[in-house]
Amino acid sequence: MNTARRHHPSRVRSVTPMAGLAVIATLAAAAAAPASQPEWLRVTEQPGRSVSLEVSIRDFAPSRRPGPMVSLVGVTHIGDAAYYATLEEILADFDLVLYESVAPTGAAGAGGETAWEREDSTLAAMRFIGRTAAMAAADIGSWPVSMRALQGWADGDDPRLADFVARCQLDAWGRPLRMLRARGLAVGAPPTLILSSLGADGMPGGEGEDADILLTLGDADRERAAAEAEAAAAAGPGIQGDLAAALGLAFQLTAMDYDRPNFLPSDMDIGEVNLAMAERGGSLELLEGTLDGGSLPARVVRIMLSIVRIADRLSGGAAATAMKVMLVEMLGDESMINESIGRIDPAFEEVIVGERNRRVMDDLERELEQRATADHVGQRIAIFYGAAHMPDFERRLADRFGYLPKGEPRWLPAITVDFRSSPVSEAQLRQIRMMMRRQLQMMQRMQPPAPAPASPSEDS
User: Fold this and answer.
1) Can you point out the beta strands (E) in 205-347?
2) What DSSP letter does each residue of 13-73 carry, written as one string?
3) pLDDT in tens, 37-95
4) First to last CA, the chain
5) Which of 1, 24, 43, 151 has the smallest C-beta neighbourhood within 10 Å, fewest atoms?
6) What are phi and psi of 417, to 5 degrees?
7) CA separation (Å) from 412 to 44, 66, 161, 368, 394?
8) CB 116: neighbour CB atoms within 10 A?
């Protein structure tokens, strides 16, 4: 049994790699445009010594009414281990950190404005609680005896999972979900778990919106959860983790500790993302396959990574160094990321950036309303997301809340290549960088124009 673990990211990792789609999109659809003045990503160089990819942190202050400061803390999803250690120190000083983590379906909690939305979201939240209870049962050998026991297990397993469980304990009418362990009707039948909501009226029985909602789980659910946990553990960190390991870098999801009282996940769940994509005629099938290792692009990337590892051993680290330089050059061009995201699917940018950012702004609005008094002026809120989200966040902060930039940006080195300790000569590295830039320019000329973006609106 294993009931008191520290941070264990594998429980929700199957969906959190969505947080790094911008990086994979960039690598998969390299299409560069001429670089403009850097705002969130830039490449800096000490001639003959090093080259670094740097990410910006920017502060914003309210212009309409008193309130806390808001900082946009951009991040790359792979980088130097020291980079993530610095980010942890910086984020520890904030009163609240809204962070990126696409949740499992139903984990956003119950709610809704119509009867159908309330019933559907309540059932989705119950199913999430049920799946989590099955995970706990597979781990400790028996069903949790209460919602409090389930929360305690989640607290010890993964802080992000614990946050999701805390959100899903109420139905859409604001009443606690009921949890009951029971044995089957037949003699010797295995125990089951029953979850229930009493509907809008809070009374047993009823019809329509007043009707009870029941969910029963048994041994098959527990066995399925055990198999999924085993498969997740065997799958490893995924494409981004593999890329980080091959280059001697760290992967954000495993490098950082999310078990912090000021951290709050602020994102859509995977079911909402899929629905939003489908409504726009798009699909996440290709990218999900790339991320979970099941598609042809993922297999190609894995083959490339294996070649890098072999070449690295033969060259004394030269191959990894060269690839890190290429990665710095690619990710250091913000326009390249924007172009790449826009070319994958017209719906992709609308959902993966726009819709998810809107959800963060909704959460921020709730937090700002709670802190809209003079005694909260000194408080600080961070939005901790991938750098590709930041230009849209900046626009929304100004349009929706009247938050304007304050002070100069801070730049943190995310990936640094030290030429002095590299097995690749300075001349070779300079040649690699020049070749990389020419290739990106050539790809840009060969690409058809990206579709024109829709006019932004406050709710888009």
Assistant:
1) 213-217, 250-251, 263-265
2) TTTGGGGGHHHHHHHHS-------S-SSEEEEEETTTEEEEEEEEEEEEESSS---EEEEE
3) 568 989 898 877 888 999 999 999 998 888 899 999 999 988 999 999 999 999 999 99
4) 46
5) 1
6) -110, 115
7) 11, 29, 29, 27, 19
8) 10
